[in-house]
Design brief:
The structure holds three protein chains of three kinds.
Chain A: H1 2-5, H2 9-12, H3 15-48
Chain B: H1 3-17, H2 24-28, H3 33-61, H4 72-107, H5 115-133, H6 160-188, H7 201-232, H8 246-280, H9 287-300, H10 316-328, H11 330-344, H12 353-376, H13 378-384, H14 388-418, E1 420-421, H15 424-451, H16 465-481, H17 484-495, E2 497-498, H18 530-536
Antiparallel strand pairs in B: 1-2
Chain C: H1 9-31, H2 50-83, H3 100-129, E1 136-143, E2 146-151, E3 156-160, H4 164-169, E4 192-195, E5 200-206, E6 211-215, E7 220-224, E8 230-234, E9 242-247, E10 260-266, H5 268-287
Parallel strand pairs in C: 1-5, 4-10
Antiparallel strand pairs in C: 1-2, 2-3, 5-8, 6-7, 9-10
Helix pairs in contact in C: 2-3
Classes of the chains: A mainly alpha, B mainly alpha, C alpha+beta.
């Protein structure tokens, strides 16, 4: 894709920032999945007990 | 003005033009935050008129008593689809579009943190809505159980039911991905010197909105999944005959639904908090109080859901708790309104279209807040619940709240986006027609509700005829006058007068007004200077 | 910079037009002979039960609180809009960005107002929730689309549905004017009959989907939910016999707009006589 062929100056030399972006993304994604599956597990528990 | 970074940024803009992809690839493979923002806004505009067409049909049927245009089943489909399309198709994508355009610019970042995810979260939406809207064509027609999808009613619908569920799932995933992107961008890509308490309020409100989205969209997804399994796989989550509980769905739905209404209004608070200072030529009054008020509204939104269901037979203790918690929301909301008022106080006001729409927001959203406070009073709510009083209330906060804030934001930032100014005279006509006929449309609905007209009915007793006719006339003019909006934008993009310099409005503050107009394809390839950030964060 | 070229002229024209339209709308209202019809329908009914009067007073209190706050807040806004505009030469006071004292005041005062509003509302909740010592129990069952009423322990039970005239006129393009039908969509074949001056408890449920039983003049609305029995109560004032009308308030499918509720409140003696007749008639119908 065209825009990723040439990394933007503000990002290309900032490996630390890339790492932080990845970490934040994973944390937030984990929260979403925890909410989704945690919620369904809670409902299943309520429906079966 | 710090000239050096400005010219450098400009030089970059020229340079980047060469690398802009052309043709359909630019849009289908888009990773640029501005291109994706534009697509979101165009999509939202199309959905706004689609949902608006449904609303016009609803008002046409309600123009006089008796059924003249559609039968009762189609009417229910119209109200259901109007709600779904306006909420998930028009308002929410419009906010994501504005977030895409403005957040990187306002925090001094080159782009969103996750550009490919950004592409995905947009491109899910057209498919979701093709699926949802094509349910008009299947046997039994479109979903007709209300946008709230209460079982057991919603489980009675045939072919359209799974389409609705999967469309909701797709919209939910799109919103969640968008919210993740916003959180990651704001947390990591702020320019050096752009501390949290220097961020513009639009960024703040969107950050808080994203957390709400991340917390409640999975709950909605879970709720509709349970509806799906109840319908197709013999589970009894909500089926009383199988030991399930129909009221449980309402608790779950409104645990999502109440934060959802703040998801639609908080970014509007942000936009208005940018526009009122700009046209009062005065910094925002009580910046930190605004941030804390937004956060407390977001927190309270999680503990008030049952005020949507006071009549389901809750125990007295629950009624008391949810009434008190709901009334409490009036405090931070009041703080916001007082702060906006104090921002105008002893300012130097002018009334360009963005300011006009922001002022309409201020007045009319406050009226919606008043009826909201009345609805919080449980005994009175027993009379208001499920009547046109509620319809009037939520249109005051959603149309003159969210939609007017979106329009205000577009009129405010459009010169920055395209480097051209729109036709102010036409935009003022758009404003006055909208503001006046909005009230002709929705104010009489307060009367109808108090007089005893329930919502979601295709036909009504003759004593409700007069105000329904007034409301319908208001609706037709309001709906038609919205056609001015895309025309004004189109005319501006094609042939608007060029905007010189960085600032389209003399009172505007913030990093977006430090970039040239139109904003370069890649926003802050060189981070903004400390002086620019300080100028933008005068509060 | 871009300055307003047109001023607010289109707005003024349109405002005048809207005012004229409103005046035009108000004129027939004055000519309207019926006290609670058409244009005159603007507010909640005071109703005929202690609950409905309590609800009405809470509603009016909340309304006036909102009106006065509105006058104050909108007054300040309008003052700014008129007197602090640049075209009048107003210069912005950019130091006015923060004032802890004022901010504390406008946080505390709303809290006090809210407490003042919450107290009568809490009383109202307790009043409406007190369904003990009822003198007559009626089980109300919603279905698609009508209501079944069962007088608990009295041997009387019947179904109440939209009347035939409304039904015929309500068809798509029926050609029958709704105005020619008495109580269009608010009339039933078989009304609920209750005695005045008697505490009537309702046991509300449903068989298929969720409905909601609502009579504005009684000040109560209760959802009818499959698998649940919700209770509610009312006592029609002894001096207010009459026919009171309402309708289903929860979306329940295509017939949602067509399930009215009609309550005929009669004297205690008339009620006893009606009950006897009704029980006999139902017995005869069952044995035949």
């Amino acid at each position: 894709m065209a825009s990723s062929e040439q990394p933007l100056p503000a990002r290309q030399d900032d490996a630390g920032r890339r790492k932080r972006v990845r970490r934040t993304t994973l944390v937030v994604t984990f929260v979403v999945l925890a909410f989704y599956f945690g919620f369904i597990a809670m409902m299943l528990y309520r429906a079966t007990h | 003005m710090a000239e050096t970074p400005h010219t450098e940024a400009h030089a970059h803009a020229e340079h980047d033009h060469d690398h802009k992809p052309h043709g359909w690839r630019r849009w289908v493979f888009a990773t640029n935050h501005k291109d994706i923002g534009t697509m979101y806004l165009v999509f939202s505009c199309i959905m706004f008129f689609t949902g608006g067409a449904f609303a016009m049909m609803i008002r046409a049927e309600l123009f006089k008593p008796g059924l003249q245009i559609v039968d009762a089943g189609v009417f229910n489909s119209l109200t259901t689809m109007h709600g779904l399309v306006m909420i998930f198709g028009a308002i929410m994508p419009a906010w994501v579009g504005l977030a895409n355009w403005m957040i990187p610019i306002q925090i001094g970042a080159p782009d969103m943190a996750l550009p490919r995810l950004n592409n995905l979260s947009f491109w899910i939406l057209p498919f979701a809505f093709v699926l949802l809207l094509s349910s008009w064509l299947v046997p039994g027609s479109a979903p007709a159980g209300g946008w709230t999808m209460y079982p057991p009613l919603t489980l009675q619908f045939g072919a359209s039911f799974p389409m609705l569920i999967f469309a909701i799932h797709m919209m939910g995933i799109s919103s969640i991905l968008g919210a993740i992107n916003v959180i990651v961008t704001i947390m990591n890509l702020r320019a050096p010197g752009m501390t949290l308490l220097r961020m513009p309020l639009f960024v703040w409100t969107w950050l808080i909105t994203s957390f709400l989205l991340v917390a409640v969209m999975p709950v909605l997804a879970g709720a509709v999944t349970m509806l799906l399994t109840d319908h197709f796989f013999g589970t009894s989550f909500f089926n009383a005959a199988g030991g399930g509980d129909p009221v449980m769905f309402q608790h779950i739905f409104w645990f999502f639904g109440h934060p959802e209404v703040y998801i639609m209004i908080l970014p509007g608070f942000g936009v208005v908090s940018e526009i009122i200072p700009a046209f009062s030529r005065k910094p925002l009054f009580g910046y930190e109080a605004m941030v804390y008020a937004t956060a407390s509204i977001a927190f309270l939104s999680f503990i008030v859901w049952a005020h949507h269901m006071f009549t389901v037979g809750l125990p007295t203790s629950a009624l008391l708790f949810f009434m008190f918690a709901t009334m409490l929301i009036a405090v931070p909301t009041g703080v916001k309104v007082f702060n906006w008022t104090a921002t105008m106080w002893r300012g130097s006001l002018t009334f360009e279209p963005p300011m006009l729409f922001a002022l309409a927001f201020l007045f009319l959203f406050t009226i919606g807040g008043f009826s909201g406070l009345m609805l919080a009073m449980v005994p009175a709510d027993f009379q208001y619940q499920d009547t046109y009083f509620v319809v009037a209330h939520f249109h005051y906060v959603l149309v003159s709240g969210s939609a007017f804030a979106i329009i205000a934001g577009v009129y405010y930032w459009l010169p920055k986006w395209v480097g051209r100014m729109y036709d102010m005279t036409l935009a003022k006509w758009h404003f006055w027609l909208s503001a006046i006929f909005f009230n002709v449309l929705f104010f009489p609905q307060h009367f109808l509700g108090l007089a005893g007209m329930p919502r979601r009915i295709p036909d009504y007793a003759v004593q409700f005829a007069d105000w329904n006719m007034v409301s319908s006339i208001g609706g037709f003019v309001f709906g038609l006058s919205q056609l001015l909006f895309p025309y004004i934008i189109w005319k501006c993009v094609r042939s608007g007068q060029r905007v010189e310099g960085t600032r389209a409005w003399d009172g505007a503050r913030g990093l977006e007004w430090e970039l040239p107009s139109p904003a370069p394809y890649h926003s802050w390839t060189i981070p903004p200077t400390e002086a620019m950030i300080a100028r933008g964060a005068e509060h | 910079m871009y300055r307003a070229r047109l001023g607010i002229r289109p707005g003024i024209w349109l405002s005048i037009a809207a005012l004229l339209a409103a005046a035009g709308a108000a004129l027939p209202a004055m000519a309207d002979e019926s006290p609670r019809g058409g244009w005159g329908l603007l507010n909640l009914p005071v109703g005929v039960t202690s609950i409905s009067r309590d609800v009405y007073s809470i509603h009016m209190m909340a309304f006036w609180v909102c009106v006065w706050i509105g006058v104050l807040v909108f007054g300040v806004m309008i003052w700014s809009i008129i007197f602090h505009r640049r075209s009048r030469g107003a210069v912005a006071d950019v130091t006015l960005v923060h004032n802890t004292k004022v901010e504390i005041v406008w946080t505390t005062i709303p809290v006090l107002i809210l407490v003042g509003m919450a107290i009568p509302a809490a009383h109202g909740i307790v009043l409406i929730g007190d369904d003990a010592h009822s003198q007559l129990d009626i089980k109300v069952t919603g279905f698609q689309w009508g209501w079944q009423y069962e007088y608990v322990g009295k041997g009387v039970s019947f179904i109440s549905k939209l009347d035939a005239k409304s039904m015929a006129a309500s068809e798509l393009d029926s050609g029958i004017s709704p105005y020619s039908v008495p109580h269009y969509l608010r009339n039933v074949d078989h009304p609920l009959v209750v005695p005045v001056g008697t505490k009537v408890r309702l046991l509300v449920t449903a068989v298929d989907v969720i409905h909601s039983w609502w009579v504005p003049d009684f000040g109560i609305k209760k959802d009818a939910i499959p698998g649940y029995i919700n209770t509610s109560w009312f006592e029609v004032d002894a001096n207010k016999p009459g026919v009171y009308r309402g309708q289903c308030a929860e979306l329940c499918g295509r017939g949602h707009g067509y399930m009215p509720i009609v309550v005929d409140a009669v004297s205690k003696a008339d009620f006893q006589a009606w009950l006897k007749r009704e029980a006999a008639a139902e017995k005869a119908a069952a044995s035949s």
